[in-house]
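Re: the multi-chain job from yesterday

Posting the exact lines I submitted so nobody has to dig through the queue logs.
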Amino acid sequence: MSEPKLPPSLAANPLLSRWIAFLPDKTARIASGKVEIGQGIVTALRQIAAEELDLDLQKVTLASGDTEIGPDENYTTSSLSIMASGAAIRAIASEARSLLMERAALRLNCSPEDLKVSNGAFLQNGEATDIDYWDVASEIDWQRNATASKAPKASNTYKIVGKNIPRDDLPKKVNGGGFIHDRSETGMLHARMLRQPSPSAQLSFLDQDAIKRAAAGEIQIIQKRNFIAFVAEEEWLVEKAARAASNHVTWTGTSNIPRGAADARKLPGKAAVEHFYGDPEPISPTIGKSLRVSVTRPYVAHASIGPSVALARWKDSKLDIWSHGQGMHPLRRNLALALNIDEASIHARHSDGPGCYGHNGADDAALDAAIIALEIPNTWIRMQWQREEEFAFEPVGPAMQVDIEAVLDANGNPIDWKTDIWSPVHVQRPGAAGVVMLGAQSLGAVAPGGDPADPPPERGYGGPRNAFPAYKVGQTHIHHHLIREPAVRTSALRGLGALPNVCAIERMMDLAALEAGKDPVEYRLSLLNDDRARSVLQRTSELCDWSKRGTSGTGKGLGIAYSRYKNIAAMAGVAVAVTVEEEIRLEQIWAVADAGLAINPDGILNQLEGGCVQGASWALKEEVKIEGAGIISTDWDSYPILRFSEIPEINVELISRPDDVSLGVGECTVGPTAAAIMNAVAHALGEPILDMPLTRERVMASILKN
Amino acid sequence: MEKISFTLNGKEVEVTEPDRPLIYALRNDCNVKSVRYGCGLEQCGCCVVLINGSKQYACTLPTHAVANKSVETVEGLSTSEEIHPIQQAFLDEQAGQCGYCLSGMIMATKGLLARNSKPTRAEIVDALDNHLCRCGAHSRIIRAVQRASDLMS
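And the result, structure tokens for all chains:
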């Protein structure tokens, strides 16, 4: 008999003690490398553990993102937390329960089958005993490898999983606490940065006296090569110094990007690494009708509502770090590399931050704080980025152009499908492919270079994420032109390439349906084999009254889209109703998802809805403006996002599939929402607008052209 | 540096003031951490507090402007015995994802409900339109304000 396969997170961290501990206060502490980034993961993982352990939820705590306690689960990304950490925690909790039962049976001189557990207390043949988990836990050697050999509970017995348990972290967040920003340590010093304006820029002159005069109080200036920071006990002084500093510094060699050079439509033709996926190149089809679609989106920002913060202290040759980054173990590795200190001397802990949708400024802020901490030992340093800095220096989601050429047979069905994707790299996390963090770059570290690298196919691609349609489209050829030089630093942002790819595919579906003389929903259903996918799309069309969809070109539009995130995570259908006059008004959004077993359905609905709003915001409003040294859209006026007055009614539904494996939901509605908007606008105007964001200017240009 | 006195959540406080925006006095001297720094430009609403009952941006308002006035923040809402109905309503609706924007919205809600105990959806949207939420919890937040209005009537 072959060994049971360990969930990947468990295979990488097999020791039981890395995951679970029974504490003297009669609680069970589960550990996870995945962290709270606003998605409610801490609550959902506790639900899974409590369920398998037969414990009340209150008796289960979760230690998340602590390099000294928990497992290394890399980053909290790609809608994988429930699928990866959840699977590991289920297996660990199930195994722990079984070990505890066996131990209790020995004590009670009975068979484990005679025992049941009620909130951690053992019952023997239904009668209370005087022992519980904590009495026998110390007799078990937890320094052993997990086997995942115990079958977890059947889903039809679940009492905690599947319930709408309120989020653990929200009560303190509505009551003045809960964020890394709120941590205050004795003797803590506040810090701000003056950033090197572009990677090539070299400090020529820094007028320290003028900056100190502007601060009008006692500040320290840390300057090492191109790394410049201001430190003081009083936060306002460093804020003033940082605000004034750009007037008192001279840089040489700063980038000078011409206006318009970073436009998505300028990506084709730039130097690229060429990747080919799917079927071999087509033999030029001589029969059939060829259709083309070309979609772009610009560089877009995480634009977290709060600036990045980190706390660091260097004391007794040990570096303590608090960060809101997506992974504390990788952060520890990256800090060790950047600071040239031993990884074992760093203790990195996660503390909740403002909304995180990927690789934002959090890691860089942690290095900034650590560099200063090494200069000023034995003192906690609190680094807070400025708003302008967050916008200008966070890694952004890359601009993309996606072209699809589909060839239809005589019945209007696709027989050949060719996609060209032009995109700079989607993931430049530090450590990967020699990428260096901002602080390290300022200190002179140089990335070793080499080809840019997106996530490989087995991790869902980067630029080509979701480029393979869920539909039967015949021979499929994906050509990924991975642009070598992004205009500015790019990295992971919610969904990576999924949004533009789903937009292009779903636009093509509408075009092909028109060509085939079929209704767009009927056409899609005819090309979808998977019953669950069909159910999602059918339900979406029912919710939005698709059958009553009016004619095209009236100014009122209804659009629909379907996608399964990474083709393996949750399935989502989205329909959007719009009114288009001079600008686009969202009237209503309907979203339906199939996420398999739902751990916390209300938490999922919250994520689905948030994805709709963020997808809509990217589609309609957002564009990182790049010129000169880099990003020039550095406040909420120059980088507008969707506001309350632009939010439509949103109806979200979850299809319950308790017997199917849980599927990650964090990113699944983002792409289909943008695509449904694009299709709705095309329906309203009778003509598509294919370049995002779909601004008033583009609407007016489209109306005037027609 | 001058000493400035004001009422903070019903208690008299005094800060020694290097002429800062109010947010720094509140967060760092008064340990009132609900007042969140978002932009420093009055564009996001994270730092909104009530001054003599009306909405103000603590990120730009000079501390001396609140001398002898009443400043209300989230910390003043609940007592150890009882959670304030606005906070309860936000929890009931699970109206938030990251939660960073909520302090300002909760205070804006308090200001709104004080002058209009039964706001329509449009009035709620209007009252919150200068507050940004990046996670997309808007619909839940609107429902939370409606629920708070019900709980308080």
